[in-house]
Every structure is written in structure tokens, then in C-alpha cells.
Amino acid sequence: MTAKRDVTPTYEGRAYTRPDDELVDQGLQFDIGTLLSRRGVLFAGAGAAALGLAACSDGGDSSGSGSGTTASAEDLTEIPEETAGPYPGDGSNGPDILEQSGVVRSDIRASFGDSTTAAEGVGLDIELTLYDMANDNARFEGAAVYLWHCNRDGEYSMYSEAIVNENYLRGVQVADADGVVKFTSVFPACYDGRWPHIHFEVYPDVDSITDSANAIATSQIALPQDACDTVYAEEGYEQSVENLSQVSLETDGIFSDDGGASQLPSVSGDVAAGYTIALPVGVDTSTEAGGGGMSGSGGAPEGGGTPPGGAPESSTG
């Protein structure tokens, strides 16, 4: 009789990490392996198109106005270090999405895992171009970006009571040969006390993202006022209209030091087709990363900002 052999399932030539589980449950490291093996194919096919996209993202001036103009790569400065706030979901204060299989994704509109609920709102494409300032502003290929923001109601998945079991509007992407990462999302709300914003952390590589202490930059994107005014006139964003009227880039607890001059992206598009924002991000690994963590402890945080829905109240959002 022929002895029965154990056959470990494989995917794209790689053995399952967890042979008894489904492909989608193989864990973050298996997902990373899949991503990296596909990147070689994607880079070979992207070529000139990727270069063209990166070139487009470098334009603009440095006026720092609410219209969304942004500094060019030639005038690049290090992205300001900001708090990650109380809702990072990176394991620094409880919930940790960065250990979960499925977090490496470009489209962050829907939850993954036990839920597939999608966040509603006006479409928003986010493009960041990373520059390695310690290496003559070279495009930061291979750096990983974890990005997250609130939903149309000003709530944060994994924290706010109504959506504590969701993990949408959070995801990781790895910079391509031109230092570019892209996310497909929805336009976030303006909640009480904070200018509309998007959080992100930069890691030196995708293997580092499972520990938030490895972040080499933590910052926020300030959304341009013109786009905010237009989007918040749409159904579903009603509460954002009043909240936006009570804050400005000059009074916001995060952006007030310079009016968000280096954190305002360029913007294009409209409500019907969705918006696209693009921002050059200078990362200087020769300086100490001073962001992350949570500012304030108890009571009203410095800079204000308390999303609705039972989220923690101990820090700036």
C-alpha cells in the first residue's frame, strides 16, 4: 500500500502559512509576500504611466491657501510630525489593524474580515509621493504607508460605538519605484473642534508595519476648504457644515502653527466623479520621528476634536 502524503496547499508557488485555513486567513506576513511578488509584475507593466503620474503630483506652488495648492518637490520640506490621535488602530492604544491579514489594500472603503460593510460618502482618491530626504530627496521606493480617517459621520472604525466592529477607512500601501502610494476612499467629515483631516504613518518597509514604534514619520493631511465646502453641501454631511464654520486652519490645534502649508494637497475632481488629492511627503530618516502617540490625557484635549459615537475623549483626533 502506498503511504499517504501530506500535501500543503500553495498559492503562487508559496506554501500556506496556515495549511488548515482558507487563503484569506493566512495572516499579514503571507499577504505581504503576495504583495511583493506581484509588485515586480506591476512595475514591469506600469513603466512610463507611473512616471507620468508621479510627475503630475510634483506640481503646484507653496501658497498654503485653502484652495489646495502644495509645494513642489524642489521646495520640499520635511512633513511635520503630528499626533496619531486617539484612534490610530495601530496597536499603540488597544485596537491593532496592522496585524490583520487584509490590511494591505488600496481600496479602503469597505471593512474586511468578518464584515464587508462599506463607508458611504463622496469618492476620494488619495495619492502621496514619498521622498527620502536623507538620500538627496530620492523617491522612497519600498516605504510603507498606513492611512486612516473618520467616516461621513465623523466616526472612527474600531473605536466609535456605532462602528466598533468595522475596520473600514484604514489600509496600508507600499511605495512603488516612484515613491507613490494610492488609496481609494470617501471624503471624511468635519467633526467638532478639528479641521477635516487624514492621518498617516510612514514605515521604512512593509515588514515594519506590525509595530507602530517602527514608524519613521507620523502626520496629517489638511483637506482644502473649497472641496470641503462643496462636499459638505451634499446629503449625509449636514453636521459637517456647522462644524467647519467654527474652525479654521489658523485655529486648528494641529495645523495652526503654519496654516497647514506643507500638509495641504493639490485637489481636482468634483462631487459626481469624486475628488483626487495629491501631496508630496518629505521623510527625513536622519531626524527623530516625533509624532505618533496621543496628546493630552483626560478632559478636553489640546487642539480639541472629539468625534461623535462614544469614541475615546483623551486626545486630539
UniProtKB/TrEMBL annotation:
Disordered, as annotated region: 80-99, 284-317
Biased amino acid composition, Gly residues: 289-308
Which keywords does this chain's UniProt record carry? Dioxygenase, Oxidoreductase
Ranges where the Intradiol ring-cleavage dioxygenases domain occurs: 140-192
DNA repair among keywords: no
InterPro entries from the xrefs? Intradiol_dOase_C, Intradiol_dOase_core
GO MF annotations, alphabetized: dioxygenase activity
Instruction: Name the domain of life this protein comes from.
Output: Bacteria
Q: Which parts of the chain are coiled coil?
A: none
This protein is called what? Intradiol ring-cleavage dioxygenase
The opening ranks of the lineage are: Bacteria, Bacillati, Actinomycetota, Actinomycetes, Glycomycetales
